[in-house]
Design a protein that fits this description.
- The chain is of the alpha+beta class.
- The protein has two domains: about 90 residues, Alpha-Beta Plaits, CATH 3.30.70.1280; about 80 residues, Alpha-Beta Plaits, CATH 3.30.70.
- The chain is built from six helices and eight strands; from the N terminus they run E-H-E-E-H-E-H-E-H-E-E-H-E-H.
- A hairpin with a 2-residue loop joins strand 6 and strand 7.
């Protein structure tokens, strides 16, 4: 069994895409993912499966759509991929609540870095690495034009988490054991 983390995009932000994490865990249990865990209320899920990541991604999206009526974008990464994301962080000295990693649904087009650069300030360095993009929001995310328009600029679905959240998900995933 492989341990995966799923990052759901746009969950429980304001009045849309409301999703109870206990109800999600129950649905995952019933849907063949026993022992699934969640972290925070923003759609961070740890689970295990013998299936491939792309299959898990499709099955989770379908389960959420069928059970909760929500058509959400989500990305799935293995525990080893998440450990590599943390190890490859190009901003290791940055505040972990201001350094983010965007998990992309697919590789962005060649113009994506230029579109992101057009929105970034001098306090927002970024690095593209395949299906992840790191951004160090040196002045915080709250007032950042780049943070508000990042997904549109990158051109593919992007689910963004702070490095601090990714660290906590990796910790939770490292403790995860399949209950079968």
């Amino acid at each position: 069994m492989t341990v995966f983390a799923a990052f759901l995009r746009g969950v429980n932000l304001g009045p849309v895409n409301k999703l109870s994490m206990p109800a999600l865990r129950d649905a995952l249990e019933a849907g063949g993912f026993p022992g699934a865990k969640t972290y925070l209320n923003s759609g961070n899920v740890v689970l295990s499966s013998a299936r491939r990541a792309a299959t898990v991604e499709r099955e989770l999206a379908a389960l959420i759509r069928e059970t909760f009526g929500l058509d959400l974008d989500l990305t799935v990464r293995t525990l080893s991929q998440l450990r590599a994301v943390l190890a490859d962080n190009p901003f290791p000295d940055g505040n972990p609540s201001q350094v983010t990693v965007a998990f992309l649904s697919s590789e962005p087009g060649p113009a994506a870095p230029d579109r992101v650069q057009a929105l970034a300030t001098e306090h927002e360095p970024f690095v593209f690495t395949g299906r992840e993009v790191y951004v160090h929001y040196g002045k915080g995310l709250g007032q950042s034009s780049l943070a508000r328009r990042f997904s549109a600029a990158v051109g593919v679905s992007a689910t963004v988490r702070t490095i601090r959240t990714v660290e906590k998900v990796v910790e939770l995933a490292g403790e995860h054991r399949d209950v079968n």
